[in-house]
Write a structure and sequence with these properties.
Layout lengths: L6 H5 L2 H38 L8 H11 L1 H22 L2 H7 L4 H46 L8 E3 L5 E8 L5 E9 L6 E12 L6 E12 L8 E13 L3 H9 L3 H7 L2 H28 L11 H24 L4 H4 L2 H14 L1 H16 L1
Antiparallel strand pairs: 1-2, 2-3, 3-4, 4-5, 5-6
């Protein structure tokens, strides 16, 4: 009777599962530490905004949860890179890789396991970057802007008048919702030297322009009075809706709103700035694969080197890689380079660096023989 092995057990041996388990454990540990650092930094920033009255305190943890989920697509590539570095560095210093090689486990087998691990993480990163994170950033942006509006209207009390900081307008609302976003029986007086302006409406609510980030107070079913009582140019206009600009959207808010757009919407628009954003999102998954493969030669320390000997060049490679992607994003958005070139040149350059790292022993022997031939 034939003994047919299970497909998984025949493909992933004990050594393979051992290596993958080490990768996953280190990934959770490294990403967890980076995530805690990111969360603590964000928490301190939100607390500072709440302390000066720029944000209500009751939305801090909601914003913190959305920010932490949005950060995973950034933290996972560097977490996977360092996880492979830590795992293979420990195996190299403990001579486990030497024993594996003596038992017939080739470097291609190790590379296959790294590719399996990195490919799984890359799929997760791609899903987060292209589908999940834009929606999370959109929710965070809306919540954050509404929180700022709510903080700016903290002094509003139903049935009482409120003056602006400059004293140029007076606001009154008979009814006010709990989040201070919707009002009933609204009265607004805007002081102007030539013609005072008065608005009276049945309802009102705040809106944020999705493209520019401008904040508006939208009045519904009301009247607009312009001029001084008794003047011949005094006008009364009835309106169904009327928008009052409260605050102009800043450039940083426009960029945040652009990052929160869905990938399908960016591809539909097809402008260089939109394509640059899509390329940035897809680059995270490719970056995960290339960095994890680069960790194999960097983690293979020499006989008199520690397990962390390759961390300095590894950090330099990550910094150079991420900065090049940022520069490429700016170039594509401005139209300085063709779109097709912007999507590949950074990754091709890093693949060349990867090939040089994987074949560094061959290059050293070639350069050594070349020097010996020249000395003769």
């Amino acid at each position: 009777m034939l003994n047919v092995p299970y497909p998984i057990s025949s493909w992933l041996t004990i050594i393979d599962r051992y290596m993958l388990r080490e990768f996953v454990i280190n990934l959770v540990a490294v990403t967890g530490v980076l995530w805690l650092i990111y969360i603590s930094t964000r928490f301190a920033r939100y607390l500072a905004d709440a302390a000066v009255g720029n944000m209500p305190a009751d939305v801090i943890f909601s914003l913190l949860g959305l920010s932490s989920l949005g950060a995973l697509s950034i933290l996972l590539p560097i977490g996977a890179f360092l996880a492979v570095m830590l795992s293979l560095g420990r195996m190299s210093s403990d001579n486990e890789l030497t024993v594996m090689s003596a038992c017939g486990i080739s470097s291609l087998r190790i590379m296959r396991n790294v590719l399996l691990f990195a490919g799984t993480v890359a799929v997760i990163v791609a899903t987060l970057s292209l589908a999940v994170v834009p929606g999370v950033l959109s929710d965070r942006y809306e919540l954050q802007e509404k929180a700022k509006i709510s903080a700016n209207t903290t002094g509003l009390i139903a049935g009482s008048f409120k003056e602006s900081e400059g004293g140029d307008w007076t606001f009154y609302s008979q009814g006010l919702s709990a989040d201070k976003q919707f009002m009933e029986n609204v009265f607004i007086e805007i002081e102007r030297e030539d013609k005072p302006l008065i608005f009276r409406s049945e309802t009102g609510h705040f809106e944020i322009d999705s493209q520019t980030g401008d904040k508006f107070l939208v009045l519904e079913d009301g009247y607009r009075y312009e001029g001084k009582a008794g003047d011949q140019d005094f006008t009364i206009a009835q309106f169904a809706t009327h928008s009052l600009l409260i605050e102009k959207g800043q450039e940083g808010e426009v960029r945040e709103r652009h990052k929160a757009m869905s990938t399908s919407a960016l591809l539909e628009r097809g402008q260089p700035r939109d394509v640059a954003e899509v390329q940035w999102r897809t680059a995270a998954a490719l970056m995960t694969l290339i960095l994890c493969l680069s960790a194999i030669p960097l983690a293979n320390a020499g006989p008199r080197q520690g397990r962390y000997a390759g961390f300095v060049p590894a950090v330099l490679i990550y910094i150079i890689y991420s900065n090049l992607l940022g520069v490429n994003r700016a170039w594509v958005a401005k139209g300085d380079i063709p779109i097709w070139l912007g999507g590949v040149w950074v990754h091709v350059l890093m693949l060349i660096v990867l090939l040089l790292l994987l074949n560094r022993q061959t290059l050293r022997r070639f350069l050594s023989r070349h020097k010996q031939n020249q000395s003769r």
